[in-house]
Each structure stands twice: as C-alpha cells, then as structure tokens.
From TrEMBL, chain A:
Poorly processive, error-prone DNA polymerase involved in untargeted mutagenesis. Copies undamaged DNA at stalled replication forks, which arise in vivo from mismatched or misaligned primer ends. These misaligned primers can be extended by PolIV. Exhibits no 3'-5' exonuclease (proofreading) activity. May be involved in translesional synthesis, in conjunction with the beta clamp from PolIII. GO terms for molecular function: damaged DNA binding; DNA-directed DNA polymerase activity; magnesium ion binding. NCBIfam families: PRK03103.1 (NF002848). It is found in: Cytoplasm. It catalyses: DNA(n) + a 2'-deoxyribonucleoside 5'-triphosphate = DNA(n+1) + diphosphate. Mg(2+) binds at D16, D112. This is DNA polymerase IV. HAMAP family: DNApol_IV. The keyword Nucleotidyltransferase applies. It comes from Paenibacillus aquistagni. GO terms for cellular component: cytosol. PANTHER family: DNA REPAIR POLYMERASE UMUC / TRANSFERASE FAMILY MEMBER, DNA REPAIR PROTEIN HOMOLOG YOBH. The active site is at E113. One of its GO terms (biological process) is SOS response.
From TrEMBL, chain B:
Pfam families: YolD (PF08863). It comes from Paenibacillus aquistagni. This is YolD-like protein. It comes from the Bacteria. InterPro entries: YolD (IPR014962).
Amino acid sequence: MNKLPDKKNRVIMLADCQSFYTSVEKAAHPEYFDQPVVVAGDPARRSGIILAACPLAKKHGITTAERLGEALGKCPDLIVIRPRMQEYIRVSLEITAIMQTYTDLVEPYSIDEQFLDITGSQELFGPPEEIARSLQEKILKDTGIYIRVGISENKVLAKMACDNYAKKKPSGIWTLAANDIEAMLWPLPIHQMFMVGSRMTKHLTRMGIHTIGDLAKVPLSRLRAKWGVNGEVLWMIANGKDYSPVKPNTHNTQKGIGHQMTLPYDYCTLEEIRIPLLELTELVCQRTRRKGFMGYVVSVGCRGANFNKSTGFHRQKKLAEPTNLTSEVYQTVMSLFTKHWNGAPIRSIGVSLTDLVSDQIVQLDLFHDRERELALEKAADQIKLKYGNAAIMRASSLQAAGQARDRAQKIGGHYK
Amino acid sequence: MSKKLEGNGLFESSRMMLPEHKEAFLHHQERIIKQERPKLDTQELEYLSMMIAHSMQEQAPIVLTLFDEIENKQVTGTIIQIDPARRAVRLQQSEEKRWIPAADIIQASSQR
C-alpha cells in the first residue's frame, strides 16, 4: 500500500458514511439486515423520491433521487422507511464524537462526510491506515455505520481518494499520496474531480479537456482568464494543491440566518406566494431573535418551476436600522418580491437576514411601538419553543397555500 | 465567491450542512470546548475565606462553585475542617464528607 512522504506533511482524512440514512435505519431495525431498504420522502408529495438506498436495494437498480414508484417497480419487496432527520443528525454527531477521541481536528462537511486532521495523532494511535481501520471498526460497532476513508495530505486529495478509490475498495480505505497523483488521479475522467458538476463537465469537454490530467496541464493563466477565481480553483484541485485547514470552528461564523423551502406545487399568484413568504420570514426572525441578533440586510430569492430554463432571482436590500421584527422584515421581503418577480410559476423560495448585530442596542422609534410588537413576537417564540412550531401560527397559514404546519414536522424538507 | 482560495473558503462554499445539523454541531462543540480557570483577585479570595470560615464556625450551609474545564459544578454542605497545609477544606454533605481542593473553589454563597 502507498506510504505518505515525510513527516512534516499533514495527514488528512475524509470519512464518508456508506448509505447513511438506510444504515441508520438498519441499525435501528436489525430485522431488515438482509433486505433491500430505502428511505423515501412522503410519496404523496413532490418530495416522494428516494433519499437513500442500501447496497442491497442498489443491486436491484434503485438509485438515489428516483421516484418511489419506479423503485417499487424494480423491487416490489422493497422496505420503504420514512426519513427521521433528527435521528440522522444525532448519529452523525455520535460519529463526530468518536472521531474526536482520535483528534480534536474534526470538521463535518455534510451529514455523512467529515474531515479529520490526524497529523498529531500518529504517535498515540499509529500510522494513518491503522487509525482509519480503528475508526472504521469502532464506528461500525457503536453505530452500525460503515465508513470509507480517503487519506492524503490535504482535504481536496482526501476527498478525491475517498470518492474515487476508498468507496470502490473492499477495505474501504485508500491513501492517495501527493506524488502519486500523476498515476492515480490524472487518468480519471474529468467529471470525477471534486467541484466538477455536470455543467462544468460540459464546458471542459468542449474545451477538449477530458481527464483530470488534461485540466492540470492547461496553463493557469488560461483558466484564470476564462473563469477568474473559479478557474484557478479548478486548476489547483487538478494539481492536488490545497492549503485549507481542517477547521472545527468553521461553522461558528454566523454570517446570516436564512431558510428556504420547496413548494408542494408551483405557485403562480402573489396571493398564494405571500403566505409561505410570511412563514419563512417568521421562521428567520424567530431564529434571529432566539440567538439575540438583529439584521441589516434582508434578502429574498425564488427559483422557477422550469428546470431547463432557469428563472428566478435573488435580491437584497439594506435597511436603515437593524431589525428582527417579523412585520418589518416581511415588508421588505414583499417590496423586493413584487419588484423583481416576473410572474413565472415558482417552485422554491428563500428568505434570509444578514449583517447581524447584537439585539442589545436598539434604536428607539418615536412613531412605532417596537417594544410592544417585539414582546408579542417573543411570547409566540416561547410557545413555539416549548410546544413546537405548529402550536401557534398566523391564520393565513391555514389557507391552502400555507406550509407552516407541514414544515413544522420536517428538517431539510424531510420528516424529522 | 472570491473567498474560495483563502483559508477554508473552498469547503465553506461547497459544503452541504443542514441548518439543524450545524446548530447541533455547534452545541456539541460548546460542550467540549474547555474553559479556562478564572483568576480571582485578593478581594474575591478574601470573601471566599470569609464565607468558608463562617460556614465552619456557624455550621451554616454553603454552596461552593467548583471549577471544571467542561462545566462548573456546585456542591452544597457545611464546612467541617480547614487544612491550610494541604490547601483543602472538608465539606460535610448530607451523607458523606469530602475533601475539596481550595484551588477549585471559585465561588461561595449561602444559598443556591
């Protein structure tokens, strides 16, 4: 197996959980151990798609993001489980905690991927692959989750080692040394590179760039001229260069508070759309108040229903005074929305409040009793905190277009 | 946008973190971030000595806040012995007696 070069280099891992949601469910339901299992959203709604499929289900040709109906067609005995997002978050953090017994440098990248810097852990716990095996065993034993580990000397290479090699090896562990990238990384097709999606693949293929190696050899100046910073980022990744730290406090920087939602059907009128906009605004303000902030900048965005022709906008406005009052933020949201919406059907919307400041300093307003309004909203917040977000809501949310009741049961658009 | 080449920018701009996951992670981190031992000034130390002496002489209940890297702890009882040599006080709790290193005491009050 490959060795990492000299000691002064960092040793970085990316650990990825195999079929995370279904693995959590299989650990909770041992009786499904040898059966094909999928986790799928509510079949009655647009979110009725496969969120995760276990390896046995994948053998039947079932893929993530396909419709539940299609999956059942391929495998009638399929076990279908409703998502439990809160539980997946809990297990993800349990895995974080296990990783933290090896190093304090653990950075979650998504619910099922975490970076580790184990440079300083080797004297205590042994060489990198031994640490990877030990992590794999311990996490499997404690949570029932099987992790795959990519090892290298920076995050970009660790990620690509995991996605392109560790996931495909029986051991689930792969080391990609920086001086092996010519042989290991460069022959791979360009779409297997980190940060290259389907659109970028099209652009690059049109430029005659088919492999990661092709991209690595393009003069940096050409990429920079074409895409600016993004071009430089691609070139760096192709050449295996990355200086990003594994930063556990990376999530501390609260730049803003925002929420977005996908609507159950396409909303076409302002009358309909204003209801979920108010609900989102309320949610954003509720969280902002709870954290003791006010925001200066209100942004609102929406995405059209037609995926082929992307429509929609994202606009923001800076207020004269910071606020966390639902009514004030909503006013700005609506004025931005009516100004920029072209009337095309809407599939998803988002609202956020940024440029946050502490709510301990308040501008007094002569003509407007903000204190009273704030007290009312805070009282509603307390009720929601204690009894859940569906305990008290605006009457408008009871209309057909309202989403608050549904959303109160969900995390990330899926059931808690 | 242009921060992708700085610090952790590449990963901060590309990650997929649910807001609820992020919050739970921050909460998890808060619990393991170790706090530093507070430095008490002479006045505070004098006050602590006074409260401890008072509890011993009057057999008055005392609540001591003990420093802990993760989370400070509170103990309630009566002081029954002061040992300057080992720099510790002995606390009589409802059932048991225990020695408490004086250095761990960061606060004392007569009630919770």
